[in-house]
C-alpha cells in the first residue's frame, strides 16, 4: 500500500515536471509562424482574425433586452437598423431604410426599406420584420421599451406595414429625435421568421410569452456584416463573416471578443500581441504603454458626462438645497484638477448638453472657472456663511475606468477650502445606492450619465420635471419657463431653431440648477500598431466594421 | 462506516437548508431590491417597466412568500433562474464549476505535494539552512497576497519570459473540446483532442501555482509542526533506541501520526479553492465559480448568490465527510471510536 503510494507520488512528480518543462506558450491566430511539420499541405488563404479584450458586462444579445455597455458593439455588427450613426457623421444616415418622409404635423413617419437588404438567413428584410422588431422591443417592458414607449404618453402609437417595403410609424407627439432613437441597437431589425420560430412574440403578451431570448443569446438573427458563431459567458464570443451580407464586405473573417476582466491582463496581452485591441485600461496604464512602439494609444471623446447632484428638497438635500450653496459649490469645484485626474482629452461642458451635440455651447475655460472668492461670497449669502458638514454617498461605479470615489475625494478637498466638509460614504450601486438614486432620495452625490441615443434631446431628462430633474427634487413648478422648454425642443422639427432653444437652456442652467457638470470623459483605446480606424463610437463603443489592418 | 456516512449526509441536507435560509435572509437585508442593477435610468423612471420587472422575478411579493416559493423549488431540486444570465442557476453552476474544479484540483495537488515534502524536509533538518529557507518559502506563500502574486507571475512568466501562455483556459482562437465533464484536460483526453490537451495544460500551470502558494505554505507549516511534535514523543524515542533507521522510522511511525492535522488543512484548502478565488480568476480571466459569484454579487442576482453559497457549503460538507472518513483509515483509534 505504502509502496504504491510512493510510486504514485513519484509518477505525479514526473508528470508535473514534464508538463511544466515541455509546455510552450500556445500560438495565437495572429502569429504567423507555422509548425515545421506542415509544409506539404496545400496552403489555404489565411483567416484574418481581430481579437478584442473587454471587461465583460453583457449577458444577453437579444436587442429587445440588451442594455449593457458592450452589447451594442456586438449587436451593431450582427444586426442593422433603419438608420445608423457612423463615425464620420453626427446625424443618422440610412441603413436598412432608403429614406423616410414625415407628415406636416410631425406625427407620421413613412420609411422605405432598401430592396437589396437581406438577412444572414437569406430571407429578405421586409416591412413586417421592422414592425415585428419594433413592437417586440416596445412590448417586452424591458430597457429597450423605455426608448420609444415613453411613460408620459409620448412615443409610438402604431406601426403599420402596408406593403413589403413600407413602414408607417405614428407618434403621439412630434419627436425631433425620433430618427436618432431608431439608431439604438434596441431597435435593431430581427429576422422575424426565425425569431418567431424560436418563441418570439411581439404583441402585448411579450413580457410573459416571448421565449426567444435564449435563442438570441447564442445566435444572431440579423442582416449585419457578421453573425454570432458562439458565446461562452465570461469566456469569449466569436463573430464570423456573414456570407450573405448585402453591403460592403467587412475586413476580418472572424472577430474574437475575449473576456478579460482585469485591466493588467488586457495590457500585457496587447503588448504581447495576443490581443489586438484592449478596451479597459486606466490612465496610469495608458501612460505606461505610451513608449511602446508595438501599440498605439487612441484617445476618443465620449458623451459620458459626470455631475454633482444637489437635491432641492431641504429635507433631503439639507444645506445643499439652498440656491446660494449650489452656486458656491459650482464656483468652488476645481474643474482643471478634475480634468487632470480623469486624463488628457477631458473637456468640461457648459451644462448638461455634451460638447459635440447639436446646440452645445463651447466647453468652459477650466483655467478660470474656479473662483474661490466668488464661492465664499455665495456661501456668505446662504444661511451657512461659515460652512457646514454633510454626507456624500458615492457609488462603486467607474465611468470610463475612473472610479467615482476618486472624483469624490477631489470634490471633498475642493469644498473644504470654502468650509464645506463632506463625509464620503461609499455604497454599492446594486446594494441600495441605485434605488436611492432612482427614488430621488440622495441629498448630495456624484454620478454620471451616458446618452441612450445620439441626440441632445436625451439630455433634456435633466430639466425640471423630467426624470433626472426629479431625482434632484427639481420639479416643473420650480421653474415653469425652463420646464416648458422640454416640449418646445422635442417638438421642434427645425434643427437650427432646436439648436437655438438648446442654447437658451444651457445659458440658464449654467448659472442655476441643482447639477454641476464637472467633466465629459475621454476614452482611451490601446491597439496594435498594425491597425487603423480604431475609433470609439458613442452608440456601439467600437465600430468593428471600420477597423482595418494597415 | 455506512451508518457514519448516512448520518453525515443527513446533516449535509440540514446544512444546505440552513445555508439557503441564512443567505436568503441576508440577501433581503441588503438595501435595494436589485432593480436598479438591471434597469437603465430611463427605464427606472417608467413605472410600467419597473413593475413588469418585479413581477417577472417575484420581487413584488412579500418576502415570506418569496422565501416559501424559493424553498419549495429548492426542495424539488430547482435553484431558480439567474436574473443576470436568464439561465437556470444549476445549469450556470454546472458550466462554471468545472473550470474551478480543474484549477483547484491541480492547485491542491501542487500544494499537497510540495507542502508535505517541504514540511518533512524542514522537520527532519530542523534549524538547518534548508529548514530556514523552506520556512521562509512557506511564510511567503501564506503572506503574499494572491492577486499581487498573480499579476507578478503573469507579468514575468507570460509577458517577459514567454514561458507560459496568457490568460484564459485556452489560447485565443482554440475551441473548447466536446463537452463531457467540462474539465478540458479530461474531455480532450477522452475525445483524443491533442491540440486542446496540449494547450489547456500549460494554461493551468501558472494560475494553479499562484493558487497553491497559500495552501502550500499552510501545509508546510502544519506538517513541520506536527512532525516535530511526533518526533519528540516517547514511542519514537523508543523506536530510535531499538535501532530503527531514520527513513523507516519516519514513514512507518511518524508521518502517519502527524497526518491528521495535515489532512484537515488540505481539506479546508481544497474547500477554499473550490469556492472560487475571485481575484485570481479575474486576473487570469478564468471563467470559474469565483467570477460567477463576483458578477452575481455585483448585480444583486439573489438566486445566483444563494446558488453559489449552496455550492460552497456543499463542497465543504462533502470534503469534510471524505476527510473524516480518511481519519479512520489513517488512525485506527478514530475508526474504533465511531
Structure description:
The complex is a heterodimer of chains A (550) and B (338). Chain A is globular, with a radius of gyration of 26 Å. Chain A starts with a helix and ends with a strand. In chain A, strand 13, helix 16 and strand 14 form a beta-alpha-beta unit. Chain A has two domains: 267 residues, D-Maltodextrin-Binding Protein, domain 2; 222 residues, Roll (Dipeptide-binding Protein, domain 3). In chain A, 32% of the residues lie in helices and 21% in strands. Chain A is α+β, with helices and mostly antiparallel strands and 550 residues long. Chain A has an eight-stranded mixed sheet, sandwiched between helices. In chain A, strands 4-5-7-6 form a four-stranded antiparallel sheet, covered by helices on one side. Chain B is globular, with a radius of gyration of 24 Å. The mean pLDDT of chain B is 88. Chain B folds into two domains: 74 residues, no CATH class; 203 residues, Orthogonal Bundle (MetI-like fold), CATH 1.10.3720.10. Chain B is mainly α. At the A-B interface, helix 1, helix 4, helix 8, strand 10 and helix 9 of A face helix 2, helix 3, helix 4, helix 6 and helix 8 of B.
Secondary-structure map:
The complex is a heterodimer of chains A (550) and B (338).
Chain A: H1 2-22, E1 49-54, H2 71-78, E2 83-84, E3 93-94, E4 97-102, E5 108-113, H3 127-139, H4 145-148, E6 156-163, E7 166-171, H5 178-181, H6 192-197, H7 206-209, H8 213-218, E8 226-232, E9 236-241, E10 254-259, H9 263-272, E11 277-278, H10 283-289, E12 295-310, H11 314-317, H12 323-332, H13 335-342, H14 366-369, H15 372-381, E13 388-395, H16 404-416, E14 420-427, H17 429-439, E15 444-449, H18 467-471, H19 480-490, H20 495-511, E16 515-528, E17 531-532, E18 536-537, E19 541-542, E20 548-549
Parallel strand pairs in A: 1-10, 1-11, 13-14
Antiparallel strand pairs in A: 2-3, 4-5, 5-7, 6-7, 8-9, 9-10, 11-16, 12-15, 12-16, 17-20, 18-19
Helix pairs in contact in A: 12-15, 19-20
Chain B: H1 2-29, H2 35-38, H3 41-44, H4 47-56, H5 63-75, H6 89-124, H7 129-143, H8 146-160, H9 184-191, H10 194-231, H11 234-241, H12 246-274, H13 278-283, H14 289-298, H15 302-330, H16 332-337
